[in-house]
Amino acid sequence: MGPVHHADAMTSIDVRDLTKEYGTRRAVDDLTFTVPPGRVTGFLGPNGAGKSTTMRLVLGLDHPTSGAAALGGRPYASLREPLRTVGALLDPGAALGSRTGRDHLRILAATHRIPDRRVAEVLEETGLAPAARRRVRTYSLGMRQRLGIAAALLGDPEVVMLDEPSNGLDPEGIVWIRGLLRRLADEGRTVLVSSHLMNETASFADHLVVLGRGRLLADTSLREFIDARVRPAVRVRTSDPDALENVLARHGHQAVRHPDGHWTVPDARLDDIGRLASAEGVPLLELAAAEGTLEQAYLDLTAAETEFVTQSQEA
Ligand SMILES: Nc1ncnc2c1ncn2[C@@H]1O[C@H](COP(=O)(O)OP(=O)(O)OP(=O)(O)O)[C@@H](O)[C@H]1O
User: Fold this and answer.
1) Closest atom of ligand 1 to CA, residue 23
2) In this structure, what are the phi and psi dihedrals at residue 295, rounded to the nearest 5 degrees?
3) 3-state secondary structure at position 27
4) For residue range 123-156, what is the model confidence (pLDDT) as tens digits?
5) Were both Cys, which of 165, 212, 249, 310 would link to 305 (CB 3.0–4.6 Å)?
6) Keywords assigned by UniProt (predicted)?
7) Quick one: 245 and 274 in the same domain?
8) pLDDT tens figures, 32-48
9) 259, 121: one domain
10) Mapping DSSP to helix (H, G, I), strand (E, B) and coil, where does residue 46 land?
11) Atom 11 in ligand 1: residue holding the nearest Cα
12) Which residues line the pocket of ligand 1, CB cutoff 6 A?
């Protein structure tokens, strides 16, 4: 795929005071955020938080109750060649099963004035070239997912929105999509990716937009998101666990022992634990900062939201 030629046009996704009601249910509730180009933004939130609805509103597939969504300052409906501006994967079941993967893409290209050579390019890019002449109904879930991604990339778009792209992908596919997202962002594109896989999201996202019950819960860098919610800890391994536990306890640290034999010391600083162990002659095999995970931070933030959803469903 070539570089983005309109980088100066700054095709961001802009969501402003966006609200969508289905009957009495507010799927999206006064949402405002911007997804800028040049980075991968992870789109997170519990089931039913409004992620898919937001993406559908950005793509003009549904009308907002109030507020607006725009791409590079323009609503989707006003784009002259929409697939050249934004490519999206929403529903991997969207392709007709009786068509071949290649025909699905060729028809899409023909109806959107996209040069036919793009079909071969995206088939190659998504690893589908060997299966291009097979009917879509013979595809595995992962292959359908790749076809949906191929369709999203067909118009060489400046904005790429993918809903759960890792769904059904095998480990090789997961590594591939990680590299693809990184490259799209490095090329200056705007990349918004929803996922329920926290380790996965942490491996590709620079920035996060988190929803809960249709509202914005966080719009921050991945690092800040974790650091603000997960307290620092120190990871230690020793050949003398009794001595370690004893020394830490005497200095007011509640160390936690893990099944594989390492310890974590919550709310502790690396230097303090290192000096302490050294001064007291405790032999250390490992001493490291225990990084907080996105999963820890996410669960901390969304605990209240998830609880609400569970209760209201039971009621
Ligand atoms: N067409 C529709 N008609 C009625 N309600 C809808 C419709 N589409 C979505 N909803 C409701 O809006 C809310 C948000 O749904 P949405 O699919 O946007 O959430 P999500 O964050 O994408 O969830 P998930 O992680 O489960 O995919 C849900 O309560 C859902 O039931």
Assistant:
1) 4
2) -60, -45
3) strand
4) 999 999 999 999 999 999 999 999 999 999 999 9
5) 212
6) ATP-binding, Nucleotide-binding, Transport
7) yes
8) 999 999 999 999 999 99
9) no
10) coil
11) 27
12) 22, 25, 27, 45, 47-53
